[in-house]
């Protein structure tokens, strides 16, 4: 009986929320259109052209057996540290390089290929999703803060936080694995890795053109879904502000900000960042009442948490593969806390001394690109990104139409 009431309450809550959203769209059509265009521009100019190459290459690497090859080589590292197979190292590296939600897509793909168990997929998804370096250095540091030096501390704190999450999530689901035999990591063996590469490629007998077409179609479909979520949450964020609901939640955020000794003026920027990281990071950078360190700590948390927009994208990808979303959400909270803490701890050695011009303070294993390098790449992406998006959308339409006509011909 209680379960029945809970289901009915959930139905009423969901129906009321959607109805309120539809009513607010009618009340604020101009603001909704502006927010929708803003989200579309972000997807059109940056997200699509920056993620598409990684998605296509990832699909091809899996099909040609390169991921299986890397999985054998990385098994001695990934299994003891994170309790995931070696193929998780590929998802981890690609997730850091390409950004949200590449890690989730690759995890779901590897799970569907039966290279991961359910628990291993949940572990892997929790720490392979992160902001890419281009966004951290180009958009946030150079674009919003106009301070390229800030990108170093934000990036290192972000990725150290992700590693910390992975080390903690290795204990996730350990009770469920008690009855199963333990899999000890296979020793490093290049000949065995090469044999695995060859055997995986032989299993896939499709021609190169078919593999490439499937990779393009799958990648564009995922990016279309991502674009829809970006536009939706951009509109939701704006409508919450227009209906003054953001101000209603602000007092609760102020209490949390007091506990962390951050300025109360971060209440609305942080709330906005909980929905969409781009807008939240921009608003935090424009808060005049806070010091640069306080802005960096708050921005680190927002970048690591990912925002509900990114989390909705990941939830959709994981749901298609029947992977639970809850561990990922808990991991995002931990990542936010870790990233903010690392930013505070590393502020003096990685920013104060570096920005003051002391070359000895820069770690030798972390070469810093020229100050304007990331900014130039970001500008080029915004300039030529729409053209790349348009070309691949046309290619996607052509491939889909060709596949549909081929299917009808067989029928």
Could you describe the 3D structure shown?
The protein has 411 residues and is mainly alpha-helical. It has one domain. Helices cover 78% and strands 0% of the residues. The chain contains 17 helices and no strands. Helix 2 (29-63) packs across helix 5. It is globular and about 60 Å long. The N and C termini lie far apart (50 Å). Residues 46-143, 223-319 form the Nucleoside transporter/FeoB GTPase Gate domain. The chain crosses the membrane at residues 51-74, 81-100, 150-173, 223-243, 296-317, 329-347, 384-401. Keywords: Membrane, Transmembrane, Transmembrane helix. It comes from Geobacillus thermodenitrificans (strain NG80-2). InterPro entries: Gate_dom, Spore_IM_YlbJ.
Query: Helical residue percent?
Result: over 70%
- Work out the count of structural domains: 1
Shape: globular
Q: Give the N-terminus to C-terminus distance in angstroms.
A: 50 Å
Most strands sheet = none
The number of helical segments is 17
In total, how many beta strands? 0
Q: In terms of per-residue confidence, which ranges show pLDDT below 50 for 5 or more consecutive residues?
A: 357-368
Portion in strands: under 5%
* Rg of Cα set: 22 Å
**Structural class of the helix and strand makeup?**
mainly alpha
In round numbers, the mean pLDDT is 83
SSE succession: HHHHHHHHHHHHHHHHH
Pfam family, one: Gate
Protein name: Nucleoside transporter/FeoB GTPase Gate domain-containing protein
Keywords: Membrane, Transmembrane, Transmembrane helix
Organism: Geobacillus thermodenitrificans (strain NG80-2)
